[in-house]
Each structure stands twice: as structure tokens, then as C-alpha cells.
Amino acid sequence: MTTIDLGTPRLSSIAAADPSRPDTPALVDTFGRVATDLRISLTDRCNLRCTYCMPAEGLDWMPSSDLLSDDELLRLIHVAVSRLGIRELRFTGGEPLLRRGLEDLIGACALMEPRPEISLTTNGIGLDRRAAALARAGLDRLNVSLDTLKPDRFKTITRRDRLPDVLAGLAAAKTAGLAPVKVNSVLMRGVNADEAVDMLSFAVKNGYELRFIEQMPLDAQHGWERAEMVTAQEILASLRTAFTLEPDSRNRGAAPAELWIVDGGPRRVGVIGAVTRPFCDQCDRTRLTADGQVRSCLFATTETDLRALLRGGADDGEIADAWRNAMWAKAAGHGINAPDFLQPSRPMSAIGG
């Protein structure tokens, strides 16, 4: 098995089996967490150039020969579902709508036993034309990234003039029954931080479920500054100038968002304080990059190469065991708040959200 060093100090080696790992089919780690949610990056390509994600000129995309084929991808997903206890699949990117045959991939996953819940995170461009087909294929729900309602700001943040396309995609997803349609929004100081109330008003009016996400150090430029991040506490304070928020009494479980009831309900808003309110102790995720690498965390400093096993003739049992070894070595947390934290060399667009 090949372990790829991403250019930062390793938390631990994941190349060899640890004899202390329990004899269980599940993806367990040394802190008692069990991964049941698989995040799958389908491509590192994107049709936007968001300032907090990548430079204006874009990035050098992965060579097509490095990407998993549909057959390879489906085989790994089948191993995860049938052998490792994965119950939820989320397709991400880059921009997953750029992956050819996405509907066919979703349809194949929907036929797996036990049938996993299938979701998608997208920037919404082109979604208006495909939402109905995605729902028919078996997609259960989706999240659409949207950071502003102002056309000029949208163009500044994404470097593309495509706000009408995203809004049309949201409406089409709602019509297709992909409920609840969730909106992911990142607020940045001096850029769009003044839109918290407007974003929630828009979501409430249209029946969408809004998620504010603290900006994380995952940009390709490695230019993240903590001072520019709008914190969860600040977001909630802004919202409370116009709304009454009460904590959602339902068990949060491993969900990343703290949920709040808006003006007595039924609408809710979520705040994901990944930096200032980390939820690592409840994390239930494992990640697969578009080139077949397993990551135990967004901020992991090692990857385990399942593509090499696939192409080297490994059977499903060997692949499953390598995946278990990778997750057994998962660190306690992302380490963002540690003084020696180093940002992963891979940006979010290459890791998958």
C-alpha cells in the first residue's frame, strides 16, 4: 500500500496495519468514532474561481489518467457500502456537475444494498437543467453554495457573472423535490459579512435551509487569515438583530451545524463553526479524492492510495482493510487552533468539501 506525504509533518503513519485495531468491519478510529459518511470528490475542476478557494487563473487540473474511472469509483463505493458500514454518500468536487455521467453514477449507487442516502454539494451552475434528472436518478438532497445575493459581489467573489444561474438552480432543485434544499454561505469580513440577515431572509422566504460556514484554511493560495474570518458568534449576533433564534432541541449527533429555530419555526438556520466551535470529537466522515486517495480529515497530512491497490489487482477485502487502517489512524482533531498548525498542501477543490 502506498502512503502519499503531502509535504507537511505526518500525524501518524497509515501504511501498515496496527495490531491494536479491533476486529470489526466498521471504519473505527482510536478515539471511538465510527465513519458512516463518505465524501466523494468527483473532479478537482470548477467553473468558478472563488477568491477564497483558488487564484483567478485557476489551477493545474489533475491529468485524466490520474482520475478514477466510473468503474473504479463505483467499486470503491461498493466496498464502502457493503463492507465498511457507510450509510451516506455525498458527491463533491471541485464542481461535481462537471463530471460526465453523474446521473448514471448516482443511479448505480442508489441500487446498492443497503441503499445509502445520496447527496450533492454544488455551486448550482447548470443545476436548473439537471435537477429533475438527478432526482430521478436517486439523489436525495443537495447543498448549493451561495455567498451573496448581490450580482456585483457575486462577480467579485467568484470572478464570474453567474448569480442568475445559481438562483435558477436553487429553484429547480426545490421543484424537483430535493428537499430540504440547503444553501451554504461563507461570510468574509469586508466582503459580504453585512449580508447575514439578507441571506437568512432570502432562505426563509423561499423555503431553503441556510448554513453559514466559518471560512477555513483550505485555499490554494494559502492566504487564509483568522482575522478575516467571520466567527460563528458574530454570525449569530448579526442574525439576532432581525430574528429570534432558539436552539433546536433535536440531537445534533455528528452533524457539523448547530441548528437554530427561526422566529418560532418551522424554518431553521445552521451555523458551522469549524474553527471556533470544532466538532471533531463527533466526526463520522471519511473522504475519497477524485484520484482515489482516502483522507481521514479535511486537514489530514497523509493520504492512503486506494487507486494503486485497484490498479494493482487487490481484491475487495484488501481494499477494505487498507481503508480501515487509514481511518484507525485518524487524528483527534483538525489542529487549526494549534500553534504548529500547517495548512494541507491540497486545496479544498482537490480534496472535496
Commentary on this structure:
27% of the residues lie in helices and 18% in strands. With 353 residues, the protein is of the alpha/beta class. It has a domain at 3-178 and 284-351: TIM Barrel, CATH 3.20.20.70. The strands form 2 sheets. A 13-stranded mixed sheet has the order 1-15-14-13-4-5-6-7-8-9-12-11-10. Strands 2-3 form a two-stranded antiparallel sheet. α1 (70-83) packs across α9 (316-328), α2 (102-110) packs parallel to α3 and α3 (127-137) packs parallel to α5. The chain is globular, with a radius of gyration of 20 Å. The two termini are 25 Å apart.
Radius of gyration: 20 Å
CATH topology title of the domain at 3-178 and 284-351: TIM Barrel
Report mean pLDDT, rounded to a whole number: 90
Q: Architecture of the domain at 3-178 and 284-351, according to CATH?
A: Alpha-Beta Barrel
Q: What is the overall shape? A: globular
What's the quaternary structure here?
single chain
Tally the helices: what do you get?
A: 10
Helical residue percent band: 25-40%
Span between termini: 25 Å
CATH class of the domain at 3-178 and 284-351: Alpha Beta
Q: What does the main sheet amount to? A: 13 strands, mixed
N-to-C SSE string, H for helix and E for strand: EEEEHEHEHEHHEHEHEEEEEEHHH
By secondary-structure content and strand pairing, the structural class works out as: alpha/beta
Enumerate the strands of the largest sheet in spatial order, edge to edge or round the barrel. 1-15-14-13-4-5-6-7-8-9-12-11-10
Which residues form runs of ≥5 with pLDDT under 50? 1-15
Proportion of residues in extended strands: 15-25%
Count of beta strands: 15
CATH homologous superfamily caption of the domain at 3-178 and 284-351: Aldolase class I
